[in-house]
Amino acid sequence: MFQLFDDLYGPRFRSLHTRSSLTLDDVQPSRDLFISDSLSILRPKPKDLDLICLVVGLPLYADLISYAANIQDDISALLDDTLAYLVKPQSLAIEVCVLKWHTDQTCHVNLAEFIEFLDSYHFESFKAIFNGFQFHSDGAIVLRGIETSGLLATLRSEITHLFPRIPKIQSKWFHVPLGRILDSVPERTFMSLKDKCVESHSRFSKEFSINRLHLVHEHSWYQTNYTTLALKDGII
Prior knowledge:
Number of helices: 7
Number of domains: 1
CATH superfamily: Cyclic phosphodiesterase
Oligomer: single chain
Order of helices and strands: HHHEHEEHEEHEHEEE
Radius of gyration: 18 Å
Number of strands: 9
Helix content: 25-40%
Largest sheet: 5 strands, antiparallel
Strand content: 25-35%
CATH topology: Cyclic Phosphodiesterase, Chain: A
């Protein structure tokens, strides 16, 4: 199991090994997701956007929220007064696929047809396990997850086959975005945070059953404002 996580998430995490800090330029991609004035007053507010995606969560299950929240508490304590944004517990979600990115002028997937597909899809519950967290040089912080039944890969493949105009850029991960680092990180804090990541990789969560899909139209980053387009419950 350790090898599965390392194969999927390890290359991105190990890219930090040549670094000892993060600069403001490093985390600018994260800062770009937030209203500039809100950063100036140290109260980050996600920018508006227009994005349509299929997710697990909103909300996630109570035990998984608790697992993620405990990790967020550790991150907050280590970052101390470094400006960061941590996703609210009820807004935590796992991306399955994106039907329209915020940079796209229009959605090329027929939503009525997609909702019909979702409604008729024989959806058995996914099994998922989590293995700590990692952060990246652009400031992103994620909870590392793997869907162990193989059903998610099947669903993603079927969606791609049936809806060929879906955006080409899609995640192969099963991660929970936990937040963003929004300021420079000095060496001592950087190394402490990296050590906490490594420590977290030594433990696995219990196995979770994922039995609801949520099609949403997001109006701001990190699900702070969204509209539900469809829900699909799986067979437990």
